Amino acid sequence: MESEFIHIMSFINRTHGSIGDKIYTTIDYLEQKAKILAADRSNNFLHTTKLQKMYPNVKNIKASVRDILNEIKLIK
Question: 60 and 11 in contact (C-beta within 8 Å)?
Answer without folding.
Answer: no
